[in-house]
Amino acid sequence: MSERTALLVDWGGVLTTDLFVSFRAFCADSGIDPNSIAKTFAEDPGSQQLLFDLECGRIDEAEFEPHFAEMLGVPAAGLIDGLFARVGPDEVMISAVRAARNAGIPTGLVSNSWGTRRYPQDLVEELFDGVVISGNEGMRKPAPEIYLLGARRTGVEPEQCVFVDDLHFNLDPARDLGMAAIHHTDTATTVAELERLLGLELN
Prior knowledge:
Layout: E1 6-9, H1 19-29, H2 36-43, H3 45-55, H4 61-72, H5 79-83, H6 91-102, E2 107-111, H7 121-127, E3 130-133, H8 134-137, H9 144-154, E4 161-165, H10 172-176, E5 180-183, H11 187-198
Parallel strand pairs: 1-2, 1-4, 2-3, 4-5
Helix pairs in contact: 2-3, 3-4, 6-11
């Protein structure tokens, strides 16, 4: 594959630590099955729609929390903050994106959001030429339009891009648009693949 000249990345689970580790810890602390969140989304279409509405900005956190809390059987107050309590920055991935941008690679964020306040604005401005957050746009991955918007805001064509996401089902639309796609499962592997595709040393 020829070198790519632009980079689009997800936020949660790529530039942060693993969201699902935090979710499982929240469940364990709450005295429920650590896999309750994954099971609820997999088995309950109502919970899926609730999440889609949150990610697209059709409802806010205050509307989401009591409904999802009832599905899980936990208190509603501070639910989303509790779910994300053990999520922190992945400094190596952040450094890789910073290095790519400093080397002249256009960089963009394409992220499904659980509320738009969870993005540190100063860091977002430092790292990205283009920003697409689902709650601000009324659409979410894996809709092809959100990837196209990410490329457009970053000032590049889809075929120039590498796209990185921790959820495998978000990758196929990117590939269909001509992007090179990386399934982020661990930082070292992702950085090595980015270096290969972008032709740069990033760390």
